[in-house]
Design a protein that fits this description.
By secondary structure, the chain is α/β, with parallel strands linked by helices. The chain is built from 19 helices and 14 strands. It has one domain: Rossmann fold.
Length: 493
């Protein structure tokens, strides 16, 4: 997305004044520490206190003079809730959680730069991209060649005076740069294909070990769009793993940006796992991955712990169990009232709405839609900007968290009704992409031919390449059927 940002106006030819206007916001629903938050951003503001109430007049500008779409009247601002409830959490050892939340916006953006390997190599991240988080050190990258899951783990540098913690940033749908249709297909499953992936389960195992370690710290999962949705699923599963042992652990956080709520898809995952023990993948795929993926054993161990916990839930108590588990975490989602994608699913935590006007770009910036099509995007372009990370980064840089208010997004109930159909379509698409891509690669054929037996598009039982349909020259893909003795036991398919 960063490559789509428009260049600043040429100093010799600035944007005409008629296309811009100053932006002034006024609010009295402020937290006691809003003054510190706004001064951190050097925003022109006037803050007055009267009794227990603060009032702010925020001046930003000039911004583009674009029409703002109407918010949905079904969005409900909670009169008895306050943003301080999630920005001050006594369970956390991080004193300024709002600073942490602001950092996750940048981390979520960086996650989009994680590149999955073309062959058997590791995932990569350009050094310049990771260096944007100067107070953090890149610890590990995660990538899954089946679902397109991609994530980066950053650990706070102690020399910067930060309390111990890690940020696990998860990429969302790759729509513009580095278009990856695996993430599109995973989106049809509401992110389930990604948060149950082998790489995500490895991440959960690593994060749980860090949260439990005496020299470890708190764990923060974040992402935007589908990345935020997957962060909710991974966060819930992480807390379930932490609950499986009586050992003490640090607090786990989920900070989601403009994301669909994950509660319904989490419940579908639990229901299927309780009955079948699997994560929704086919038997042939699970058997192949057990014999070929380096981290499969660790992922299978994490999955086994999850299934054991889920099977102990009393019948009909799944939703209550999910709520109890997420209540042990800090789960917050930020959204703009006009963001269409925030209307699907139930968010398992507290959602905070930003003032819509903070989306507007500066006079010399462009909306993402404007950069793509080279023309004004109008109200629709502004609405789409409310979902893209550009809009969130811009708002946060203007102190948006200081003005955030607890709210319930307007909902589209039909989205969960069509979830089973979409999920099925997403799985079929993912399998087709995998068989046409990674499973047809030379590296994968090398693994198949080293196994006692394998299956192909034309023959389900191969032991010799001269058997009909068993050689790479005769077919496209292969999957390991029988692994060598002592191999990892596959997750049920």
């Amino acid at each position: 997305m960063r490559a789509l940002e428009a260049a600043r106006c040429d100093e010799a030819a600035p944007r005409p004044a008629a296309t811009t206007r100053p932006l002034m916001l006024s609010s009295s629903d402020l937290m006691s520490f809003a003054r510190d938050m706004l001064s951190h951003h050097a925003i022109r503001s006037s803050v007055q206190g009267a009794g227990r109430q603060l009032r702010v007049e925020l001046q930003v500008g000039p911004v583009q003079d674009l029409p703002l779409p109407e918010g949905n009247p079904s969005t409900f601002y909670l009169p008895d809730r306050h943003a301080a409830e999630v920005l001050i959490d006594r369970r956390s050892r991080i004193p300024a959680l709002w600073r942490l939340d602001e950092t996750t916006v940048l981390a979520a953006d960086i996650a989009y730069d994680v590149r999955l390997p073309e062959g058997d190599g590791p995932p990569t991240l350009a050094a310049a991209s990771g260096a944007q988080l100067a107070d953090y050190q890149l610890i590990r990258l995660y990538a899954d060649e089946y679902s397109g899951f991609a994530a980066a783990a950053f650990e706070a540098r102690p020399e910067r005076g930060l309390p111990p913690h890690r940020i696990y940033a998860i990429a969302g749908t790759h729509v513009f740069e580095h278009r990856d249709f695996r993430s599109w297909a995973s989106g049809l499953t509401f992110g389930r294909a990604q948060f149950t992936s082998t790489a995500a389960l490895e991440l959960i195992g690593d994060a749980a070990a860090y949260a439990r370690h005496p020299r470890g710290g708190e764990v923060v999962l974040t992402g935007q769009s589908q990345g935020g949705l997957v962060a909710q699923g991974v966060g819930y599963m992480l807390q379930t793993v932490l609950n499986a042992e009586p050992r003490p652990h640090r607090l786990a956080h989920v900070v989601s940006w403009g994301a669909v709520g994950a509660q319904e898809v989490i419940l579908r995952m639990i229901g299927q796992a309780r009955k079948e023990g699997g994560r929704g993948n086919g038997r042939d795929l699970e058997r192949h991955w057990a014999a070929s993926q380096p981290g499969y054993a660790e992922a299978a161990a994490v999955w086994a712990t999850l299934v054991t916990r889920w099977r102990a839930i009393p019948g009909g108590g799944e939703a209550a169990a999910v709520r109890d588990t997420t209540a042990r975490m800090r789960v917050v989602g930020y959204f703009f009232e006009i963001d269409l994608f925030a209307r699907a699913g139930t968010f398992p935590g507290t959602t905070l709405a930003f003032p819509t006007a903070l989306i507007l770009p500066d006079g010399c910036d462009l909306l993402v839609v404007e950069a793509l099509i080279g023309a004004q995007g109008g109200a629709l372009g502004v609405r789409l900007e409310s979902h893209f990370l550009n809009g969130y980064r811009r708002a946060v840089s203007r102190g948006a968290i200081a003005l955030a208010r607890p709210a319930l997004p307007a909902k589209w109930p039909w989205t969960t009704d069509v979830l089973p159909v979409l999920e099925g379509a997403g799985k079929l698409w993912l399998e087709a992409l995998y068989l046409e891509g990674p499973a047809a690669s030379l590296a994968n054929w090398t693994r198949c031919l080293a196994a006692p037996s394998w299956l192909t598009q034309r023959n389900r039982f191969c032991r010799r390449t001269f058997w009909p349909g068993c050689a790479a020259e005769e077919t496209t893909w292969c999957l390991i059927r029988d692994a060598t003795p002592g191999a990892v036991t596959a997750i049920p398919g």
